[in-house]
Amino acid sequence: MSRIGKLPIPLTSDVEVTIDGNNLVSVKGKKGTSTLKVHPDIVLEKNEQELVVTRSSETREQRSLHGLYRSLIFNMVEGVTNGYTKKLEIIGVGFRAAYNNGVLELNLGFSHPIFFVPPDGIEIEIDTKTTKNTIVIIQGIDKELVGQVAAKIRSFRKPEPYKGKGIRYLGEQIRRKAGKSAAK
Fold first, then answer.
1. Coil, strand or helix at 3
2. What predicted TM-score, i.e. pTM, was given to this entire model?
3. Which of 5, 76, 86, 94 has a CA 20 to 30 Å removed from the CA of 51?
4. Residue closest to 169 by CA, chosen among 139, 147, 184, 144
5. Which residues have C-beta within 8 Å of that of residue 89, sequence separation ≥ 6?
6. pLDDT tens digits for 95-154?
7. All domains of the chain, ordered by start, with CATH?
């Protein structure tokens, strides 16, 4: 058995899980609703306060899908109850971010600003008060989508190794390089 796949998914009273005949799982909570089409060989059983994911045979493919679908459904339950958050830190002189009318505007030292429209289900906030650097907060119920949006925003100006300027995840450590030394 898969170590992850055999663990039951705990369900709280504010989470409603429905499984239809086509293995379409729908999870509804206080933050929203999320759906997932599960492989036909994976069996889902709903008990009072937990959801159990099992597989029908021991083939290599089904063993790999077992833990995958358990993790995906667990992430859906976690997302509709608490949500997911990623924080990005913008470091650099003159580097700014603003979020107006559903568009994130980034000034990152280029000759032009970068405009980013987040996909549906993603909320973006800008925090400039807590630290001296600008913090971009990305929130949503889909763990994969939140991580993908954070990676896309980070890719606009990755942190460089000499001065550390750019966009990095909050708390991320950048390996710094020594600059040129003067000739003697």
1. coil
2. 0.88
3. 86
4. 147
5. 131, 133, 134, 135, 136, 167, 168, 169, 170, 172
6. 999 999 999 999 999 999 999 999 999 999 999 888 889 999 999 999 999 999 999 999
7. 9-81 (3.90.930.12), 84-169 (3.90.930.12)
